[in-house]
Design brief:
Layout lengths: L5 E5 L4 H12 L3 E6 L2 H11 L3 E5 L5 H15 L4 E4 L14 H29 L2 E6 L12 H21 L3 E8 L5 H8 L4 H11 L8 H12 L10 E4 L13
Parallel strand pairs: 1-2, 1-4, 2-3, 4-5, 5-6, 6-7
Helix pairs in contact: 1-8, 3-4, 4-5
EC number: 1.1.1.47
Family: Belongs to the short-chain dehydrogenases/reductases (SDR) family.
InterPro entries: NAD(P)-bd_dom_sf, Sc_DH/Rdtase_CS, SDR_fam
Length: 254
């Protein structure tokens, strides 16, 4: 009988993380979900069954990350794939972003990726290799207004991705996935703070050449491919799945 591989998904209780959990389960992985949302995490664990293990964890805290990885490895074994998916989006330019907010965004969107990658590399080396996927954003390449902390954190992930690929190749691959707008609870929560959420939603759709935003499952499919042996010659790269966002000159349609 073939030994199952094990994947850890941060921010795995909802959105893209939950879509990844379902996809990797279908690919016969044991799935570990790390998330601060205990309610959604336990519900997903119950839905997916005994090959899914939820651990409540603030992945921006080193002590909690170390304890979570210890539990995960004790439960299923060493880690083959890490999906660094945890993230938050906070709006604000430099002048109206407080130091506390800046630090919070950096801790969740960047520091957590470092902490989880560090634990994963130690585990993967025992297996002889593995794959780390960092979920970045199209805003690592282009940026809207009033997202100073967010776009900085997502851009920094490209450097972390390259660094891991260089330091731990050929046995460990690292790839950044850079989505455009995705219809997730985080996205819905972000636009709910505007005066007209439906208008903002339509504007987001029209920003993409595909004239819609992505489903979480579409992003999960690319993550699944990047983590698979089919992508075994891809490392250190940033793969955009953005519906054509940012490649068209405004007003160029005839």
């Amino acid at each position: 009988m073939k030994t199952k591989k094990n994947v850890i998904i941060t921010g795995g209780a909802k959105g893209v993380g939950a879509a990844c959990a379902r996809l990797f389960l279908k690919e016969s992985y044991n799935v570990v979900i790390l998330d601060v949302d205990h309610f959604s995490g336990k519900n997903l664990e119950s839905e997916l069954g005994e090959t899914c293990f939820f651990i409540a964890c603030d992945v921006s805290e080193e002590k909690e990350v170390k304890e979570a990885f210890k539990k995960a490895i004790g439960h299923f074994g060493e880690i083959s794939v890490l999906i660094n998916n945890a993230g938050i989006q906070v709006y604000g330019n430099l002048l109206d972003t407080s130091e506390d907010v800046w630090d919070h965004v950096m801790n969740v969107n960047l520091k957590s990726h470092y902490l989880c990658a560090k634990e994963s590399v130690s585990s993967m080396l025992k297996l002889g290799g593995g794959v780390i996927i960092n979920v970045s954003s199209v805003q690592a390449f282009i940026s809207q207004q009033n997202v100073a902390a967010y776009t900085t954190s997502k851009s920094a992930l490209l450097g972390l991705t390259r660094s891991i690929a260089v330091d731990y190749g050929p046995n460990i691959r690292c790839v950044a996935i850079c989505p455009g707008s995705i219809d997730t609870p985080m996205f819905r929560d972000a636009i709910s703070k505007s005066k007209d959420p439906e208008k903002v939603f339509r504007e987001c759709e029209q920003m993409h050449l595909m004239e819609r935003i992505a489903k979480p499952e579409e992003v999960a499919e690319l993550i699944g491919f990047a983590a698979s042996d089919k992508a075994s010659f891809i490392t250190g790269q940033a793969l955009r799945i953005d519906g054509g966002l940012g490649i068209s000159i405004p007003g160029s349609k005839q």
